[in-house]
Amino acid sequence: MKVSGFNMVIKGGLVIDPAIGFGNEADLFIKDGKITKIVKSGEISQRDIAAIPTESIIPAEGKLIAPGFIDMHVHLREPGREDEETIMTGCQAAAAGGYTSVCCMPNTNPAIDNQETVKFVLSRAEHSDARVFVIGAITKALKGEELSEIGDLVKAGAVAISDDGNFVQNPEIMRRALEYARMFDIPIISHAEDKFLCDGGVMNESFESTRLGLKGRPAVGEEIAVLRDIKLCDFTGGRLHIAHVSTVGAVKAIRQAKSEGVNVTAEACPHHFSLTDDEIGKEFNTNLRVNPPIRTQKDVEAIIEGLIDGTIDCISSDHAPHAEEEKDVEFDQAPPGMIGLETTLGLVKMNLIDKGYLSWADAITKMSFNPARILKLPGGTLEIGSPADITIIDAERKWTVRKDNFHSKSKNSPFIGWKLSGRVDCTILGGRIVYKSK
Ligand code: DOR
């Protein structure tokens, strides 16, 4: 059904909004890009119905209605690698995955370490199918040597800073970054992997890496980095967000820090709770190469435990597109990273919700409400007056991940061929349908 204009009603879905605690079948009214009314099913007056053009009614009986997903961690590759992804195609992938907002990492070429590049990205995103928020670089060119002009980045619109892909190895620089970021009340997102301990590693350091003769990245490389940044966060009074947590010890460190009142939050990615390192030796699928690496069953269990008890606040995709020819090489020659915007929901449903670890409300909190809260973004809730950023979910729909069906320009997913359950039915951005499943 084609819906145009800004008057629409989403009819009869089960509204799940952890922020307002609504859990009923309801009709959601949208006007001028905003949510104007939520009425329990069957309670709409005839007058209200008559005011809505029939073509603007979106039937959602049997579906879940959630605040649009917000991905705190994506790589959109523009500027610099438009052959792998552009802001436009990345946002199309986002919409297909149920995301209405994405936060893009600064490891582009050139890096997003100055006002002009922030403005460039925001201008390219103006008419895209998702809202784009920019994460600026902590250091110039992400070299870890000299701080970016953090105030300038914030002024231009950056919502956080990170050297994602790189750990800020110098603790003095990280200290100053936390102090500056504190002045603007933005978090620092840390890619916590000690460079020396992880240098040259291409997978988790384990029995498997020894068996395969591949250099490992030890769990302690992540854990030392997490512990250091927590210590600096506590010392400076800044705000720290740990990206893509992947080890038992990292979860433990964050849990302990939170219990002591340190201002730290954390995210986990689907590949870190869906895959283990013994997958690598089966086919040497280079799409399994990622930093930090996929690890062991014990690590998977710790991440799930962290998601359940709230140690881990968010689920992000770490969508990292790479060109096919660059992945089509030996395992240790391939660049790290995998796409994730279009498979996260299905993996969350299958591996966390279906197994009873998280409820839908928990999952939506971690995929929408918490990212909005941490980065102070619009959305994350369906409250009256909020932007009409909405994800309609077909919770029980089974589907197979197919390379040809990705909207992303890159296809580097290790989940191709997987049968998943739970799929986006429709994504609405500011009252405009940006994705409708076939
Ligand atoms: O595997 C990764 N790929 N980890 C990162 O932190 C960066 C990302 C990329 O940009 O490809």
Structural account:
This protein is an alpha/beta fold and 438 residues long. The protein has 15 helices and 18 strands. It has one domain: Metal-dependent hydrolases (TIM Barrel, Alpha-Beta Barrel), CATH 3.20.20. 32% of the residues lie in helices and 21% in strands. Helix 5 (171-183) crosses helix 8, helix 8 (219-236) runs parallel beside helix 9 (248-259) and helix 9 (248-259) packs parallel to helix 12. Mean pLDDT is 96; it is low at 1-6. The structure holds (4S)-2,6-dioxohexahydropyrimidine-4-carboxylic acid (DOR).
Write the layout of secondary structure elements.
Layout lengths: L7 E8 L9 E7 L2 E7 L5 H6 L5 E3 L4 E4 L1 E6 L12 H10 L2 E6 L10 H10 L6 E6 L13 H7 L3 E3 L8 H13 L4 E3 L4 H4 L4 E2 L2 H6 L3 E2 L1 H18 L3 E3 L5 H12 L4 E5 L1 H5 L5 H4 L13 H13 L4 E2 L8 H4 L16 H10 L6 H16 L14 E11 L18 E11 L2 E5 L2
Parallel strand pairs: 1-4, 1-5, 6-7, 7-8, 8-9, 9-10, 10-13, 11-12, 13-14, 14-15
Antiparallel strand pairs: 1-2, 2-3, 5-16, 16-17, 17-18
Name of the level-1 CATH class: Alpha Beta
Structural class by SSE content = alpha/beta
Number of helices: 15
Poorly predicted ranges? 1-6
Tally of discrete structural domains: 1
Could you tell me the number of beta strands? 18
Any idea of the CATH topology? TIM Barrel
* First and last CA, distance: 11 Å
C-alpha-based Rg, rounded: 21 Å
